[in-house]
Amino acid sequence: MVSSTEATPPVQVQSSGFRWVQLAMGIVCMAMIANLQYGWTLFVDPIDAKYHWGRTAIQLAFTIFVVTETWLVPVEAWFVDKYGPRIVIMFGAVMISLAWVLNSYADSLTLLYAGAVVGGIGAGAVYGTCVGNALKWFPDRRGLAAGATAAGFGAGAALTVVPIASMIASSGYQSAFFTFGIGQGLVVFVLAIFLRPPSVAAPARRKQLNLPQSRIDYTPPQVLRTPIFWIMYLVFVMVASGGLMTAAQIAPIAHDFKIANEPVTLAGFQMAALTFAISLDRIFDGFGRPVFGWISDTIGREHTMFIAFGTAALMLLTLSAYGHNPIVFVLATAVYFGVFGEIYSLFPATSGDTFGSKYAATNNGMLYTAKGTASLLVPLASLISSRYGWQAVFVIGVGLNATAALLALFVIKPLRRAFILGKDPAASEPATQDARTA
Prior knowledge:
Blueprint: H1 16-38, H2 41-51, H3 55-71, H4 73-83, H5 85-105, H6 109-137, H7 142-155, H8 161-171, H9 173-192, H10 220-224, H11 227-256, E1 263-266, E2 269-272, H12 273-299, H13 301-322, H14 326-340, H15 343-355, H16 360-375, H17 378-388, H18 390-420, H19 425-437
Antiparallel strand pairs: 1-2
């Protein structure tokens, strides 16, 4: 392997304090787009009650949103790598506001789906930019930085789920869409003014055996030619499908289990089971992302994946068997989301370790499209549940997560190390090609 090709030179790094400010602003931007995905479940039944379109048709809007959000991230990330984060996030801010304003007026499925497309474009612009920027500012702590940034997306809805639910109950879901859509967009637009990429690239310190890191910055076309990218993509899809299904369907599941309004008391707090579950899910999801990112910085990416995916399989199995119990429902979903959200910290960090920092935003954006692929299974979950019950959906999720855990440890780990060390022909061939054109 030609180790000198596009290797990042040792240069002086900006002040440590400033990069933490950049990270914090990225986290807040992510929190502002969280409701586009995690608050959606609160709107499904109210929309259906008003227009009687059916859950499956309404949930198609969720799938359209996620597909648009993820599959366009590589394009948006290319603009970030070329022009910086500011203009892309400003664009995203306008789009996420417009999306929820459209939803507030949607009186047809066509308009609802249009809002999903607009929201997906805006959310993808913000999400891909913030994660990619974090990977560039923190090459030495990729797991923690990506996890903290993704935590904003995972936990952001925890602060607003109760106000949104209250506004839906008191003023209708249209008012909630309009008010929160405008507010979220304004916050993101203002923060975008202050976001910037690092002016120089910092080399990642290869100080731990558990964190092999490439010395080469692979371009997106080179990455797409590597087998390890597609194996990581497959595992991402397997894990993300269960989490997206649960996030989108948690309210319908609770209603079908007839526990949505059952009071649950935990740690001195009492709420309806559904509200408690959604609130706790967002907290655990947000907390789990930086924690698992930090753990992966310590014990390695694949070992952390194995622990998280295995725990997710166990929680889905618990929901399948005992989900009709309100307390079990609340606790099991909380733990599940606590380990599910780590895919949004581990895979960006793993991508940066494997393919380098220079094109981190675009390369991670390509991997992130796996979330959109996984979202295609969300409407399928509604169809399976209508015929076989939610237990069947959970069992499928158990199988996917258990298989992903084994693939992470016994397939991704050895293949990725071989790639980074140059023992995989796919690793040396792109580098040689770059060397000839340098």
